Amino acid sequence: MPKKETPRTDPPLQVAMLLFNGLTALDFIGPHTAFSAVGMDIHLVAENFDPVASDTGISITPTATFESCPARVDILFVPGGAVHDVLLDKKTVDFVAERGASTSYVTSVCTGSLILAAAGLLDGYRAATYWSAREQLARLGIEVSTERVCIDRNRFSGGGVTAGIDFGLTLVSEVLGEEAAKLAQLAMEYNPEPPFDAGSPEGAGPEAVVRFNRFAGQVNEAHADAVSRVIEKRNAAKLASR
After folding, report:
1. Angle of helix 163-176 relative to helix 178-188, nearest 10 degrees?
2. Of 30, 20, 17, 82, nearest to 187 (Cα)?
3. Separation of alpha carbons 64 and 15, rounded Å
């Protein structure tokens, strides 16, 4: 992809993009491409520098750890994927909560919103998530949006996977202006013409949804179990504080 001359801030905006084993690569690659096109300073953050394996086996190398990531960033971004282990990982959730408390924009794509919710960063906000995870997000007390990109004040969340591209361009437009976002879109040649109208449960139809749920049943059950455990911990903490 050729580089384009695009508007940039001086100093560049600081972005922390969370990495974890089981993430969906496209959840963060779409936003990462949009952010990179406009010169943002991106930190790929994990607990340590060990390569992270995506849910399809692609390895991604972190550029920062929880300790070395800047104490304050302009944008906190959390991708989705198989997030059940992350929801119960105190170090990761604490990092997200800490950075999210001081950042200008708290953001996610796909089931990354479940992690934001577990960190308490979506309380009182609307948020989008992957279509099959909407019930789990609602169980965490979050008002669920079915929009491809949901904006609620400084919370920006995208739906599933490919919505990350729309999300990334929307956020670039918010922080750097529409012209910068248009140039980033041109740099990506993002001009989609999908061959089928099957990118949503409504378009795909009930039979396809049933087939998908059979395929993804194990992950869906793991997410439901992890959300139940998050809720149990919250209830226990509330009782202990009385």
Report:
1. 150
2. 30
3. 11
First-to-last alpha carbon distance for the chain, in angstroms, is 57
H-run or E-run covering 169: helix 163-176
pLDDT of the chain along its 242 residues, tens only? 444 444 556 789 999 999 999 999 999 999 999 999 999 999 999 999 999 999 999 999 999 999 999 999 999 999 999 999 999 999 999 999 999 999 999 999 999 999 999 999 999 999 999 999 999 999 999 999 999 999 999 999 999 999 999 999 999 999 999 999 999 999 999 999 999 999 999 999 999 999 999 989 899 999 999 999 999 999 998 899 88
Dihedrals phi, psi of 192, to nearest 5 degrees: -65, 140
Q: Which of 143, 139, 176, 141 is nearest to 157 (CA)?
A: 143
- Please tell me the distance from the alpha carbon of residue 98 to that of residue 141, in angstroms, as a whole number: 20
Among the listed residues 18, 38, 40, 110, the single catalytic one is 110
Tell me the pairing of strands 75-78 and 105-109.
Answer: parallel
* Total-model pTM: 0.94
Active site residue 110: yes
